[in-house]
Amino acid sequence: MPKKRTTVNGLHGERLKKIRRFVDFDYDLRKPLTKSQRAKVRRYYEEISALTNRPYQVFKSRNKKNLRDAQIYANNGRNLPGLTVAFIPTDGKNRVKLTFRKKGVIAKTKHVTATVIYLDTDELLVDPVAHVNDLIKNHPAEQFTVRADVYEIPSPYMRSTIGDAVARYVNRYGEANGLTPDDNHYYAHWLHGLNAYTFQDQGDLNEYLLEKQRGIKAGKRKREAERKRRQRQRERR
Questions:
Q1: Which residue of 84, 100, 144, 195 could cross-link 162, Cys pair, CB 3.0 to 4.6 Å?
Q2: Is-above-0.85 flag for pTM?
Q3: Nearest in space to 15 (alpha carbons), one of 35, 36, 43
């Protein structure tokens, strides 16, 4: 019977090994981690797991501004100041090329180009339709989707309907439906932007969004299988 592999730091040590290439800290696992170190490893591991639970590619850069802009574009790293990469969402099939401009990052695949339009949560509370329409009026994008924290709601909207779509989310997850800033689902906690798309053909965008969702579902199945495997291992000990 094979000998069980143990470390002085157990699960926290295994987690650090999985994320150490993405962070700027690397504790000595030959020594017991302190309580604060264990908490930091757990927080970074959980956040990185959420960011990689979707199709993605890793972006690295020695240019700190480009790295930060890429993290902002990908909506990651807000709570992880020690993150040394950006996890760029993809459709799971095609690599994304990033171009850095003063107005923000442009992400381009073979047929689809995406940029981010950032929303002001205070303005959304006043008049979401007017706020969205003001932001997109000079934008060249043909269709838009809603960004939900690190994820994307895959339903595309035209220029004439995206404002109403955002307003529905504000009403559904805001004061109009009894939610307050203390609620985790409150719109201001996650409704921070839109993805704006230009493309050669509508079918290209539809396939791009469909592949993204396939990748997210596959990632969730993989993580659930891994969780069950670890649970079985703990039960055998």
A1: 144
A2: no
A3: 43
